[in-house]
Design brief:
coiled coil; P-loop_NTPase; dynein intermediate chain binding; 44 helices; 5-stranded parallel β-sheet; alpha/beta; minus-end-directed microtubule motor activity; single chain; Helicase, Ruva Protein, domain 3; Histone Acetyltransferase, Chain A; dynein light intermediate chain binding
Length: 1033
């Protein structure tokens, strides 16, 4: 470019001048620009070196001050020169700035120099510090080493001291445990030496003893012990099976699971735990089911029965899934379980199979089988016996005694019972806790490694054992003291427990007299509970000794009053005598042995006077009478031999200080030897003296029985063939206005109707009466189970009328309330029975009706009582006079008396239509009499008793006979007064009351007396055997 714009030239000239070139023309500028280092000189321009102050001033004055020297003007002229203008301005400005900061830079340099000097001094000081720190660290290390050494010495001293202290404590603890451990060691040595004998006894017990009751088990074990001793095998003496085969914790657990607290049940629980063959349980009380259910709480127990149609399915399910199963009614054992009892398992491809019927099913090893029966008399074939383990829960006297004591203590002294229970539990827990501590110590010793003094677990366990063992020993001593006090209080009630045991033993043996006399434990428990919890006399008495006597007396009275209803009349006095023997009252029981001795023959000297010398010789030679027989005059003996009521004039051949009971027993013995015909009345006198007349005054009202039983307890009305007691239920239904379905057995329709009626009534709470059930024994077998499964309404009642047949299942008899009906023996009993059904009717107007009813009751009693003497006396035929005749005659009286009274409260006796009443009553009773003489005799009796003269004062129903003052009718008119009069009649009336000769009763009574003595002897011998076994046990 030859002639550039002025601004371009000015800009390039400024650049060249700034770079230090002298510019005089454009060519000079071009020459500078064309140089190779031109750009480099610009880029590498060193302002600080090349820009002097003068140079800067020159630039400012010659270039920067000009108006054209701006970036905008130059840049418009040349894009390349524009930035050079900015560079020049920047260099000039920068130089100016450098001039201003120059002094500061010098000062900075000076300060930097001073800083370097300071750093040098600091480094020197730091080096000194490092040297000092190094020295300090060395000193610290040396000090730490010294401290560590000192601490190690102290630690060692502490450890040594700790070991010394621990050694002392260990020795102290071991010294305190030494005595106990030495005793344990000796005990262990003894156990080792007697191990063979002990295990033999235990194994034999588990294998053989389960079938037998407690007394027989004791006898078996004693026999085994004698055999081992004779064989030279050592065994531990006084080693109860309950202690040897179970521990305290197991026994406490069993008690919590409702196992009764007695040795028999504990032994049976041991067998149920250790069996090899499946158990077959004999359980009359039915208590074991609850125990097994609680024992099997981890796996629910299935309860079924061989009489249940679904039992095979339930058994199959239990076999598959390993659940425990209880099959009841084992007396009906189904052969389908034979393979199960034999444990015939088959292993196929990893599966365990067992045959059930025609199929093979999987078998679980957890499966458990229990069989049970409630029939203690059930018998099983040998093949079943060999494949099962029998476990007999039949209650014995000793076990019932224990249970009764517990029950009476809970009621009478709940505080003492709670203390006793807690103490027994506490003592057991103490022993368990001590044994657990010993186990922990042995485990700690076993797990200890190295020096025992270094094992904290061992030392702590040993110290805990020492401390707690001392506390437990102290508490055990304290509890023993309290237990002694509690036992002394308990001892006061043991007489009740012994009486309960004795009474139940009597009930258990009654079946030897009659097959129908079967009574369950629950029956007796109900009696005992009623004596305790429903006794009005106890509510009024606070003295404990008096309460014990009330419970004792009422126990025997209530037992007789309830049980006698299930006995035939002639066996009731026998039962009362057995209760008198069992009573805990002071009397010489050896006299009873003489009475029951068969070698001491009985005679009736009133009818066989030729035996007088022989009998008197026998009396004189007896030790009981030898010293006093000669003091009695001949007149007294003759009076005794010939008096009709000989028991009232027995010679006093005993000391004056002899107690009342022993006097009466001697009287009874004399009556047996000399006047056997009066033995039963004499026995009644003895019983009244022991228990009072109240014994024979119990209620016979069927309604009371209905109130006493629950819905699952059938009421069985048993009667002799030809006598139907079902009318009593009909009368009760009418009186209570209850709803009752009547079903008669004897056909298949009857079975179906009975099942349907029972199901409906059980749901609705109504009644069912099934008649003639002895015709359907197979139906009765499952009846008890059906009632339990129904869970009936509380108001449901089932009545079963039957004949006394051996086909009736024992289980049903034991599970039901049996009422034995017959023609009541004795006028008094007959009248009481008749009046009980008329109590409500007799209280209605007119008041004279009650006396007419009493006349009818007496007639009914006489008519029936004369049947006892048929056919030689009384009647020529055995006419079936029954309560239906009486009921219809009562309706006749109702109709005719009401028709005359016309609603009035009184009516003149002479206005009653006596002829009409007598004729209709005669036809009612005489309709079944086909003998003319007997019919005439019936007419005479009806005319004699149904007479208006009976309304006169001091009227005697039968006059001119011995002791006829008893037959004087009371002057009152209420039925209650007549009932009291009936209760005062003699239990055994003379035959003259019946219009028979005075001696008619003799042969009858002699036979009754001999039968009674025979039955007493039979039952007493069985009771004595059981009592002796209990004493031995």
């Amino acid at each position: 470019m030859g002639n550039p714009p002025a601004s371009v030239r000015l800009a390039l000239e400024a650049v060249c001048t700034l770079l230090g070139h002298k510019v005089d023309s454009w060519k000079t500028i071009q020459g500078i620009v064309r140089k190779d280092d031109f750009i480099a000189s610009i880029v590498n321009y060193d302002n600080e070196r090349q820009m002097t102050r003068n140079h800067r001033l020159k630039m400012q004055s010659e270039f920067l001050s000009k108006e054209d020297f701006t970036y905008e003007r130059v840049n418009r002229a040349s894009k390349a020169c524009g930035p050079l203008v900015q560079w020049v301005e920047a260099q000039v400005n920068y130089s100016e700035i450098l001039d201003r900061v120059g002094p500061l830079r010098e000062e900075v340099d000076q300060l930097e120099e001073q800083a370097l000097q300071t750093k040098a001094e600091a480094q020197a000081i730091e080096n000194t510090i490092n040297d000092l720190e190094s020295s300090i660290a060395t000193y610290k290390a040396e000090y730490a080493a010294l401290i560590s050494e000192t601490q190690a010495i102290k630690t060692e001293m502490s450890r040594v001291q700790f070991k010394v202290d621990r050694s002392v404590r260990l020795l102290d603890s071991l010294a305190s445990e030494r005595t106990r451990w030495e005793e344990g060691s000796k005990s262990f040595e003894t156990q080792i030496s007697t191990l063979v004998g002990d295990v033999l006894i235990a194994a034999a017990f588990l294998a053989y003893a389960g079938f037998y009751d407690q007394q027989f088990r004791k006898a078996m074990i004693d026999d085994w012990v004698n055999q081992l001793v004779q064989s030279g095998i050592n065994l531990k003496p006084h080693n109860p099976i309950t202690e040897y085969l179970s521990n305290a914790d197991e026994r406490l657990t069993w008690q919590d699971h409702s196992l009764p607290v007695d040795d028999l049940c504990t032994e049976n629980a041991i067998i149920l735990k250790r069996y090899n063959r499946y158990p077959l349980i004999i359980d009359p009380s039915g208590r074991v089911t609850e125990f097994l259910q609680k024992e099997s709480s981890d796996r629910k127990l299935t309860v079924t029965s061989f009489l249940d149609d679904s039992f095979v399915k339930q058994l199959e399910s239990a076999l598959r899934f390993g659940n425990p199963i209880l099959i009841q009614d084992a007396e009906y054992l189904d052969p389908i379980i034979n393979h199960v009892l034999n444990k015939e398992y088959q292993k196929t491809g990893g599966r365990v199979l067992i045959q059930l019927g025609k199929q093979e099913i999987d078998f679980s090893p957890a499966f458990k089988l229990f069989l049970s029966t409630r029939d203690p008399s059930a018998s099983f074939p040998p093949d079943v016996c060999s494949r099962t383990t029998f476990v007999n829960f039949t209650v014995t006297q000793s076990s019932l005694q224990t249970q009764s004591l517990n029950e009476v203590l809970k009621f009478e002294r709940p505080d003492v019972d709670a203390r006793r229970t807690d103490l027994v539990k506490l003592q057991g827990e103490f022993k368990i806790h001590l044994r657990q501590l010993e186990k922990r110590l042995l485990q700690a010793l076993n797990e200890s490694r190295g020096n025992i003094l270094d094992d904290d677990n061992v030392i702590e366990t040993l110290e805990t054992l020492k401390k707690e063992a001392a506390e437990i020993s102290k508490k055990m001593v304290e509890t023993e003291g309290v237990m002694t006090e509690v036992e002394n209080i308990t001892l006061k009630y043991s007489i009740i427990a012994k009486s309960c045991s004795a009474v139940f033993a009597v009930l258990e043996q009654l079946h030897h007299i009659n097959h129908f006399y079967q009574f369950s434990l629950q029956y007796f428990v109900d009696i005992f509970n009623s004596v305790l919890y429903q006794n009005k006399r106890l509510a009024q008495e606070k003295d404990h000794s008096a309460r014990v006597q009330i419970i004792l007396r009422d126990l025997f009275i209530t037992t007789y009053q309830r049980t006698s209803l299930g006995l035939i009349q002639k066996d009731r006095i026998t039962f009362a005598m057995l209760l008198a023997q069992a009573a805990p009252y002071a009397m010489d029981k050896s006299i009873i042995d003489n009475i029951l001795d068969e070698s001491i023959a009985g005679a009736d000297l009133s009818s066989s006077p030729d035996l007088k010398e022989q009998v008197m010789g026998r009396v004189s030679n007896m030790s009981l009478f030898r010293s006093h027989a000669s003091t009695v005059s001949a007149e007294q003996w003759d009076q005794f031999f010939n008096e009709e009521l000989a028991e009232n004039v027995v010679p006093a051949v005993w000391d004056e200080n002899t107690n009342e009971f022993d006097q009466l027993l001697r009287t009874l013995l004399l009556v047996k030897i000399c006047r056997m015909d009066r033995f039963v009345p004499a026995a009644e006198r003895f019983i009244v003296a022991v228990f009072s007349r109240e014994l024979f005054e119990g209620s016979t009202d069927l309604r009371d029985i209905v109130d006493q039983v629950n819905a699952t307890t059938p009421i069985s009305l048993s009667s002799s063939p030809g006598f139907d007691a079902s009318y009593k239920v009909d009368a009760l239904v009418e009186r209570m206005q209850a709803t009752c379905a009547n079903i008669a057995m004897g056909s298949n329709e009857g079975l179906e109707s009975a099942d349907k009626a029972i199901n409906n009534a059980a749901a609705a709470g109504t009644w069912v009466q099934v008649k003639n059930v002895h015709l359907a024994p197979s139906w009765l077998q499952s009846l008890e189970k059906r009632l339990e499964s129904l869970k009936p309404h509380k108001d449901f009642r089932l009545f079963l009328s039957m004949e006394s047949s051996p086909k009736i299942p024992v289980n049903l008899i034991r599970a039901s309330r049996v009422l034995m009906f017959e023609q009541p023996a004795g006028v008094r009993a007959n009248m009481k029975d008749s009046l009980s059904s008329l109590t409500t009717r007799a209280s209605k107007a007119p008041v004279e009706k009650a006396r007419v009813y009493v006349l009818l009751c007496f007639l009914h009693a006489v008519v029936q009582e004369r049947l006892r003497y048929a056919p030689s006396l009384g009647w020529k035929g055995f006419w079936e006079f029954n309560d239906s005749d009486y009921e219809c005659s009562a309706l006749i009286i109702d109709y005719w008396v009401d028709s005359i009274a016309q609603g009035r409260s009184n009516v003149a006796p002479q206005k009653l239509p006596w002829d009409m009443i007598r004729t209709l009553v005669t036809e009612m009773y005489g309709g079944k009499v086909d003998d003319h003489e007997d019919f005439q005799q019936l007419q005479r009796l009806v005319h004699s008793f149904l007479t208006p003269a009976a309304f006169e004062d001091e009227y005697k129903l039968v006059s001119g006979v011995e002791n006829d003052e008893c037959l004087t009718l009371p002057g009152q008119t209420s039925i209650r007064d007549f009932v009291e009069w009936v209760n005062r009649l003699p239990e055994r009336e003379p035959p003259t009351y019946l219009g028979l000769p005075a001696n008619a009763e003799k042969l009858l009574l002699v036979g009754h007396g001999k039968k009674m003595i025979s039955d007493l002897a039979k039952v007493t011998s069985l009771l004595d055997e059981g009592e002796q076994l209990m004493i031995d046990a």
